[in-house]
Amino acid sequence: MADMNVTPARAGLTPQLWSKNFFAEYVRANRFRKYMGTGPESMIQIRDDLTVKNGDSITFAAARRLVGAGVTTSVLEGNEEALDMRSMKLTVGPIRHGVAVDNWDIQKSVIDLLNVAKPALRTWAMEKLRSDLIAGFSSINGVNFGTATAAQRNTWTASNSDRVLFGHSVANGVSNVHATALLTLTNAADKMTGAILSLAKRRAQTASPHIRPIQVVENSDEEWFVALLPSLAWRDLKADPPVLAVNKDARPRENGWADNPLFTGGDMMWDGIVCREIPELSVAVGLGNAGIDVAATFLCGASALGVGWAQRTQAATQDRDYKWSHGAAISEIRGVGKLVFGRDPAGDTTSLVDNGMATVWSAAVADA
To answer: Is the separation of the CB atoms in 59 and 88 below 8 Å?
Structure first.
């Protein structure tokens, strides 16, 4: 077959310009975008080291807080505390997609190829990044929860025992056996409420290593956590009388109904927690008491997830078959994963613990 012919650049829409605009648009449209940033204080930490050098993985680092007492009248030399440094390697890989059309299709539809391809590919890329982020939140030490074995779930539960909550009581998870803990969840006592979120927040604040809150309001020193809830947990939280009363009676009314989540379905505030519905978060079917469905809510602080880019989104077009068939494609090289660091003093990648996240399991009974 003859070599492919490259479509000439079109005025006002070159592949290079498309690439730059494409990346900005699809990341900005993602529901997690406001929580993404390059600094360790961001909930989703972005690293792009490999855009300027070669490699197939990016290392995220964490420095644990100092816990020693220091000295007062004693000599400090020789009594210094060693920094507790931790590392995690995030592997990156290629992500590609494209569309193709021939001249006969163009003739019939009278639609310009790139004008069709760009929004379609942008939507696909937005959904792909969102799905990868959600998969990261839901993972257990790099393994999807749905495919994790009982042993893997138990290991994760035990390692994260100070940042995993099953329903309304810490005692529900005391066994550190994941399936046993889920069986304690009932719809009467353990559907999502403000009290459960407040308990999870206290657990996050006292966990060791700490889960650091984030600042969600610019030029403010207020500390917040962000709770990402599946739709059924969101339904129960909205119906909880204390949460309903706070968002009905205590929210600002400068812009009227447009800023009230009771009308818009937007974020709700509760006890220093920004509560956000993520419909794509899944339900674990039949794992609760008496076979009820349960679901995980993720209470996030700083550096909960990592996104590593080795190549930003690039667009390409090509012609084949004597310019009869035309294609448009996008590609990037990146990786997404929950940030987990070792708890074991002897090794920084053993006894893994979720760095910036507490997981809250609650009843999630389907709508009648």
So the answer is: yes
- Residue 275 tokens read as 């509560």
Cα–Cα distance for residue pair 27/359, rounded to 1 Å: 25
Q: Nearest CA to 32 among 250, 203, 277? A: 277
Q: How far apart are CA 218 and CA 343, in angstroms?
A: 33
Give the helix ranges, DSSP H, for the chain.
Answer: 15-28, 103-109, 113-138, 150-159, 178-182, 187-190, 194-206, 231-239, 241-249, 261-264
Distance, CA of 165 to CA of 264 (rounded, Å): 29
Q: Which tokens hold the place of 365? A: 């009974």
Sign of CA dihedral 332, 337, 343, 344: negative
pLDDT of residue 220: 66
Mean pLDDT by 10 residues, the chain (368 residues): 49 54 73 87 87 79 76 83 77 91 70 70 89 94 92 96 97 96 98 98 92 77 92 96 85 61 73 93 96 98 93 85 85 93 75 93 95
SS3 195: helix
DSSP classification of residue 75 = -
Residue type, 306: G
Domain boundaries, the chain: 15-36+48-138+312-352, 147-304+356-363
CA dihedral in degrees (27, 46, 203, 260; nearest 10)?
A: -30
Pick the CATH number of 15-36+48-138+312-352 from 3.30.2400, 2.30.29, 1.10.287, 1.25.40: 3.30.2400
| pTM of structure | 0.84
d(CA 90, CA 334): 9
DSSP state of 234: H
Owner of token pair 């999870």: 200
Judge whether 61 and 89 are in contact, CB under 8 Å: no
Q: Find the length of the chain.
A: 368
Contact (CB, 8 A) for 42 and 214: yes
Asked if the bond preceding 279 is cis, omega within 30° of 0, the reply is no
Do residues 114 and 10 lie in contact, with contact meaning Cβ atoms separated by under 8 Å?
Answer: yes
Query: In DSSP terms, which residues pair with 165 in a beta bridge?
Result: 360
> Rounded to the nearest 5 degrees, what angle is found at the Cα of 351, between the Cα atoms of 336 and 307?
10
